[in-house]
Write a structure and sequence with these properties.
homotrimer; 652 residues; alpha/beta; 11-stranded mixed β-sheet; 25 strands
Chain lengths: 652, 652, 652
């Protein structure tokens, strides 16, 4: 069976039978329970290296042969993982250099997972074990996908990686003089005379103030990680190029540029762990749902096709300070949210709780009691049934002609900059813009600056701080051709290396937006200014730019010494419109502002006024209504009234 | 004079004449002042190693001969300390390996105290100096006790200790396969192929997620420390086995299993430093007194006989963020509390403030002024007099037939577990149960799971998370035979290695308590649910278990999705009763709940309703009334009314 | 032109043309803009080492020849910096030992600035580059001052420095026995048997409890730093002893005893970065202005002559958590404050924002836009004009006959002491006393204990904790001769090595003040007692001493168990008066108390009642009125009323 030909949603879990090999009764019971729960796929072998290869070069796959055969006979497909995210102790004992060297130049010893140097022997050993796996299972009929490594992260600073970093820099800058110039290294006498003088950044014992170096090291190690994953991909593909590959992405700040990585993957998959019920006092489930939705839209955008929810927790999580039970109906609601936003699967970590290990209390389909007589098991079973009911949605997506730029490189450059205000709140701000569009029930892609702009009517670029060559022109062209573009404060200030442009920002876009930013005032977390926009008063927050403008002033500051100055501008440019927000604002402003922008721009949306806590999303013509509050909510669509109890959903 | 034959309480202090050897007038004045203060014992030599042995193998005890002789002539007995808690600089300079290697594998350099590797040369050097001391003083008539080392703590991670740890593990698990199985090490590919691959845990650079390893390392180093102390004990006993030995315990989390250590000691002694007047806004002196009382009951229980208050501060402490003067009458009150709870002594750190060093401002009997004209000196003198008045109480204890299980191993396993809620508040919770019993004026032993249960009518086991083999049966038998047992949420979940049992908790006790816990909801610090018990509403806090029960439901949850479910249950089993608290609760509930339980169980108590801030304790038939508030309080006992002003006490 | 002969104030900035050498148009534009802004001096070469000496022994100064010549031709003088505060990467690559070894004994790798070992090759390399610079420019007519290094800090713990430290100790204590005695090292068995056993303190891995060692290490490294700067001074002076030298001081806790360093300098200069508008909620601009004023008075006192404001920010800073724009008029106000308090200059960091580097957004005269069309540029230009208008004030100071003792050694000893209360708030308390005098519009010197007391009518010594030999007598003599001396709690407790005196404090001054302190109560931050003074009730804070006194009790505690005891005393002694404050107090008390004291003592002051937020300062007969609030304020002087709008100033 080919993954894309499957008619049904995937429903399944990470499965770790290697922990139960001495318990055949349990392995047998697993099959019975999986069928009962409507599970049709499991992810295998993620942490099984020490079972596969208990001693160097001694391999043991018989147990896996049995497991896979049994699963297949029972109609359960397999996603097989390469085991690179956790190595056996013998490997680090014999080759200590496989362990990651931290920025403080201390090499780790064995423990936890993911802390490896991706440059040396580890890489070779991973290739060997991957090859063994692929040779044996690449053509097994149960296999529908390769799961390459697991939630990869971790940057190494060992001497081998340092040398590779220098080579990478040489490739990029050719001469040390050019690097010095691009790094503005004359500041604080940081001018290098030779490549060998370059050391990766180290906040604790070395360089922490040369931001271009930090930015490049981040790029370098993202490249190293992608190259590593690509080595794994090529290895397994050698044995059957028809099996699609994925890796489970999990965190925008894990050190890997997912937007660059996605080209290497056939399928995007995501581990989604919203803080359901576990947020702070001020966090609602709506807030959690917004962040989950953002990640789903991000994943869907990466390949403009459905993604896979590779991991989620069927009950109580284990990684938060305080871990709450999923309230009744929340499991179904959160599963349906993933589907609404384009997932082709609902998968869990994990099938059965292990008796030991760091995640032994992390919610699983089957608990330590081993029975089906639990709320959790029933919740999972119901999701399984529901997925069968709606299987016609599998493989489809919804309509979308608006986008937010959330560019990995811009994020790294901006978050590394210490001036103005230490905490740039960049993720928060991106979420706020996204939420405002969600509340307008518009569909949104989450794109990088390298993506094709022409498919959109409107693009928002909050704090597009760093502009690499060509991006200004790309924005100009987009607007010229009729696009609506929202730019904000902290945009167009530096180039791709955090080197300031010699102008009032936004660089090379002053004429397009009619804006020149002379100064920026930073506001503390509990501080605010006010703006007046369309007759209403809103809060200005975080950063307030003092701009000179030739554009139409549609919003003004209301207080402080810059009262009366432009805060929100709009300029027709070519066939399009250029909006500029000189400050961060409260949610109400963004809601109202985008309401106007998307209506002018012709952005696709569902024509409903925002109902508090209710998320609405279209997939292949079906409308999902999802109530993230505990109270009853009513939604009016096309003169019909739909009533949802707390945590209810409806698919129209 | 033998310690046990002494008719009077010990009253004395740590005495460090080695700091004043060039000041004979001061040493002479000390004797005069000691007599004036009613001091009859001093602890000598705790930090005197560099004076005893100023260079390797060069010993100097003459000064001590004089001191001890003079003290003895003046009727002051001596507790002589082995000096192992602080080494001379020459030792670490010549043998750097004596210094402790931290978990980050960095070896310390000389400084502070207690940071030593207990496995190598340090151990040999300690034996030598101990032998010198014992040979010279073991039969001196002034000597009434050995004070072995001082407030020992500190775990080493050097290669020698690693190797010893591996040997310890080999002894325990015999085969690496068995260890892997017991550790559930297949999780995250942690399966070891050889003992040599095992490294002690390291949160910063190595293993931090394999909880059985951490638990075993804690056990191992507790064993190393106990073995070290035992070496010291055997060394001094060689020269006179009649002199009792003690070591001053000071902290439940110092790394040593005191419950295991106590077998090696003749006498239990404790360093008591309550935060009198130094707590936070919400902490009262009652709260401080409860914790002090807990430690006293803990010490008394260890050998079921009186303990020694080895250190306390006669005035202002030095170790807190803000150090307050002891308010008038508090010194007497706190001394009497120690006596009420079973101390055979009131001893201080220290006699005379040193002019330099880390503790030069730590309250002492004699200050830098060197006079007797101080509030502190007078307070001490009065305690001395009082101890003489009540000397008939020396050597006695009170009646007690109830216990709380506060097991060192369970504590280490529970506190190491990160899931559900990071902060398990285990100490807090134990104190809360203890306080509820104190407020009911019941006497309580603080026991381990290995102690004899049969002496008790009632045992409470808050969060008995980890059950080693046999404990379930022991509890079952206790109840069967008529005992009343209070078990709570977070009990019976894992075995002694933090490996989850394959059942709904509590393991192997479901039938006894009629309880199966399906799920546990964690509550943030500012969150609460409610329970209804005996018609009143109380708060449910921290953890709320959702249980299935066949027992009598005596309390129910009042809100959230599990409202109406059982929160407090009671089941008659055999001749006894099994109570289960599915959640943590507020103080009022525990007070009321234990009021009922101890009355049903026939627990020994003083028949008085709780008077706020007044502690009441019986010792050998005498009743101590102690008012820890600043306001007047009245207590009615047997139709008599006793009135106590602020910080007053009465002995009936 | 000699610096002292210049008739005008210096107005200028750090100038880093080495960052723009490939941009001749910008260098040309700089000259035009400098003239427009009224800039008459620039500081050059601070971070230019990697440009001066791009490879070891290869020097390149031609660019600097041009820059200096061009500046000079355009009437702009030069302060030339030695480049030792930031080394080129080749230096640390070739000689890793130049990098600083931290207290944890880890040697840094290249990065940031100032992290060097001042004992070895770095010192030699600095001498070489300094010699090159001095040889070439020492007689250039543009050169008016040497700027030695830059904001020096950083203590090294490498083996070379350890050895030097031991030599320094040997020099000081002669025998190890003497050191042991002075260090009271018998405590915790710290007695050394040989110099080689001594290691510098290390909070993380070594000695952290032997306070005399810490104090001596601080002294030692201050000496090393001063000796290093002196080497640089001697090197440049060799080539022209007429050019004055300075170094830009910046922080009282940078590790250097500025009071000792000042002897080596011709001119005192200061980098002033108040948190204008960037304070916490409770901080006003008045508070910021008080701290700035304190530093200015400190600098003026060091040589009893005008100082130079070497660095300040013309607009937004970059080093705070949240960086606010300087509000309109604040730039002029803050510049005038520096002048009022005795500065001979207003200088900025920096002239032009670099495009890269850690401080690329730190406010500069010219921004990334490169134009003169900014609020900041105009603000600077106006300051330039104003400085020309008031040039007759250059070189003058105001009258002053009162002082506060703020002694570097006392600060280090006190802040290192952990007992009583961890946070001694020493800086806060000094500022509070200073502010009280400022509010009385008195002039104040900030002196060390070594300064000449005889020039003052009144001296205040808040928390003069540590008294080295002779200081008690000096205070006694000062009072005897008619001086008014204010001493407080926490005074006269230890000697210069943090060794307690054998008496009730204050040591050797009991008779002078009529005070013996028996005990000290510490108060938490939110706690207070009360005192009654002159019929009013004030707050007692932080520390409350319980004293015995033979002096006149002018203030008493009002609550707690020591209510009624003396809190403020006054004693006539000889021709003078000895005041003792037994506790810290609120601002109102200090204001009222000093009002009385300075009136009795005949302290020079401006005869105006405090007007909130208005600072008044006399310089050479001119009165500066400065309103640090945003609201209008009126000041009455000699029957005239002066009205100042928000952030206004007036010079009378």
């Amino acid at each position: 069976m080919k993954l894309e030909e499957m008619k049904c949603f995937l429903h399944g879990a990470d499965y770790n039978p290697d922990q139960w090999l001495d318990r055949p009764a349990i392995l047998k019971e697993d099959i019975r329970l999986m069928k009962k729960a409507g599970v049709n796929v499991v992810s295998l072998g993620i942490f099984a290296w020490s079972t596969y290869e208990p001693n160097e070069g001694v391999f043991n796959f018989k147990w896996l042969d049995n497991i896979i055969d049994t699963l297949y006979k029972n109609g359960i497909y397999v996603i097989l993982s390469t085991p690179s995210s956790a190595i056996p102790p013998w490997l680090s004992k014999k080759y200590p250099e496989v362990m990651l060297t931290k920025a403080d130049r201390v090499r780790r010893i064995h423990g936890d997972r993911s802390f490896f140097c991706k440059s040396g022997i580890y890489r070779k050993k991973v290739e060997i074990i991957d090859r063994q796996l692929a040779e044996r299972y690449a053509r097994h009929p149960a296999l529908i996908m390769w799961h390459i490594s697991n939630e990869m992260y971790g940057n190494c600073h060992c001497q081998t990686c340092q040398q590779k970093f220098r080579e990478w820099l040489k490739q990029k800058y050719r001469t040390i003089d050019n690097l010095n110039k691009q790094y503005w290294s004359a500041f604080w006498s940081h001018g290098y005379s030779d490549w060998d003088e370059i050391e990766s950044p180290s906040a604790s014992i070395g360089e922490s103030t040369l931001s271009p170096l930090a930015v490049d090291y981040n790029r370098f190690y993202s490249d190293v990680s992608i190259d590593f994953l690509n080595m794994e991909i090529n290895t397994v593909k050698e044995y059957n190029s028809d099996i699609p590959v994925t890796t489970n992405m999990f965190h925008h700040n894990c050190g890997i540029n997912y937007q660059k990585l996605s080209d290497k993957l056939d399928v995007i998959s995501w581990d989604s762990y919203p803080r359901w019920h576990c947020g702070t006092d001020k966090t609602t489930e709506w807030d959690n749902a917004v962040r989950a939705a953002f990640d789903f839209d991000y994943c869907r955008t990466l390949k403009q096709k459905p993604f896979y929810l590779m991991e989620s927790v069927p009950s109580v999580p284990s990684q938060f300070e305080v871990c709450k039970l999923k309230r009744p109906k929340m499991h179904m609601l959160s599963a349906m949210q993933a589907v609404a936003f384009g997932s082709n699967s609902v998968q869990y970590f994990q099938w059965r709780k292990g008796r030991g290990g760091y995640e032994k209390f992390h919610g699983a389909v089957v608990g330590h009691d081993g029975t089906e007589n639990t709320r959790v098991f029933n919740d999972v079973k119901e999701v399984g049934k529901k997925l069968t009911d709606i299987s016609e949605l599998k493989g489809t997506t919804g309509k979308c002609n608006a986008a937010i730029i959330f560019d990995w490189e811009n994020m790294r450059v901006l978050e590394g900059e210490v001036a103005l205000k230490r905490n740039k709140n960049f993720h928060e701000i991106i979420y706020k813009h996204y939420e405002a569009l969600l509340k307008n029930y518009a569909s949104v892609d989450i794109i990088s600056v390298d993506d094709d702009f022409s498919r959109y009517k409107m693009i928002a670029a909050p704090s597009l701080y760093s502009l690499k060559p060509g991006i200004s022109d790309k924005i100009r062209e987009f607007i010229e051709n009729g696009g609506h573009f929202v730019l904000t404060y902290n945009s167009g200030i530096v180039n791709e290396n955090d080197i300031a442009f010699e102008c009032f920002p936004p660089y090379s876009l002053n004429d397009v937006f009619g804006v020149e930013c002379e100064e920026t005032d930073a506001l503390a977390a509990d501080d605010y200014n006010e703006i007046v926009y369309a007759g209403k008063i809103y809060k200005a927050l975080d950063f307030c730019e003092l701009i000179h403008t030739s554009a139409e002033v549609v919003g003004e500051y209301a207080t402080d010494f810059y009262a009366g100055k432009a805060a929100v501008t709009k300029k027709q440019y070519g066939k399009g419109a250029a909006y500029y927000l000189a400050c961060h604002t409260d949610d109400e402003f963004l809601h109202d502002f985008y309401h106007n922008v998307i209506s002018e721009a012709g952005v696709y949306k569902i024509d409903v006024d925002y109902v508090q806590d209710v998320m609405i999303k279209e997939r292949n013509g079906h409308i999902f209504l999802m109530n993230f509050s505990t109270e009853q909510r009513s939604v009016h669509i096309d003169d019909k009234k739909y009533t949802l109890d707390g945590y209810d959903y409806l698919i129209l």
